[in-house]
Amino acid sequence: MSQKGSMDERRRLVAQSLQVGNPGNNARDLEGATDARATLDQIEHQIELSVEEVRPYENNPRRSANVKFDDIKESIRTSGLRSPLTVTRRPGESHYVVEAGGNTRLLALQQLWSETGDPRYRQLIVLFRPWRSESHVLSAHLIENEQRGDMSFWDKATGIVALKRRLEAEQSRQLTLRPLEDVLHAMGLAVNTATLGLYLFATERLRTLGEAVVGLTGLDVKTLQPRLNAIKRYAQARQSLADDDVYATVFEPVFSQIADKYPHTGEFSVAATGEACEAATAAHLGEAVEVVRGALRPASARGGQGEALAPHTDTTNSTLPADVVAPVADADLAPVGPEDLVRRVQAFADVAGLGHCVEPAPKSSAGFRLSPITDSGSAPTAQQRAWWLLAGVGGQVDAAAIAPVPLDQDFLFWLADPADAAATAFWEVLTCLRRTRGNTCSADVGSDTATGEEEP
Asked: CATH assignment of 41-133+144-148, given 3.80.10.10, 1.10.3720.10, 1.10.443.10, 3.90.1530.10?
């Protein structure tokens, strides 16, 4: 073959090779290729997403609108998104959710994209973090909002209580206050047991206030709780009512009325709420409201009289001065049983962070058994004081497993602090204990008189 013919043949072969199509893509048939998404979901990395692929976290604890929304939206409009969002994705779902704050920024971006159609609002560079758990995402949002300092008391309370339920479901155990405090601290949330007690009380007992809860502050709840507790104890001294009954029949109808008025007035008053609950209690008991308020008035305001409660009588036409209530013996009050005492002991223990130390013991004289505090040497002083009070109530002082605490001025001031949830709960224990012992002593005296036998 001539040199020219050889060159022509080469050109023909090259042209023929250029007409061959691309080889088939068999990547999806390769082993492990189908797990590519699962692999990426296990590592932290940056990705580009559209705003349609990301959704706000539906359990965001901050329910109230962000007052700075318009400013944030305008900042993104003029300068773009300066702080990238962090997102995650639940197993098995195709969309992403905001992982640790940023719901407001995402909403602003989505509005800007919808209003302008500008592509710069549609595509985002985000930081993806692997999914850990529902409790992790909820706690991350709580931490982010707490750092910004713009969460209301109610949002914090409902968020923490929701997190408590998540943790209990994931760990298959009930969390009393102190273990809950420990778990939250480990997650980066600094909340003490006293504040946790306020959160639980508010979310459990004050929901009937409706929209009025939005304006509640921690001080409001710290003021309202002991006042409601005092009214509740007064009602229970007159009638055998459980806590839930007092709230359902007396307090919650008052709260519902406040809730109905709040959208029109936008006003909520702790003092007015307390007064309305006192009036409702008086109406429920068939007593004059002045008598109820006189009994609830601090001893110093009654000329040094104790806070003894009058027996249940019809005082509508009473000739006693409105601010005078005749003192009576504890034995004359509504009877209580050992189970009532144990219930109040458990409530005090939970508020004081000692719920894990108390267990029912029906065969014991106190009705409960108190176990030692784990690592009592490093336990907070307030918790050690509470443990010793419970040891005294349960008759376990001689077998005490922790060092005694001094009965000093600090101890007494703590016990007398009306704003301290644990101290308030302990006074309920003492009230119940006195009534229990008074009823027992009365029964013993009656038995001795009838038989003429002395107590062995």
From this structure: 3.90.1530.10
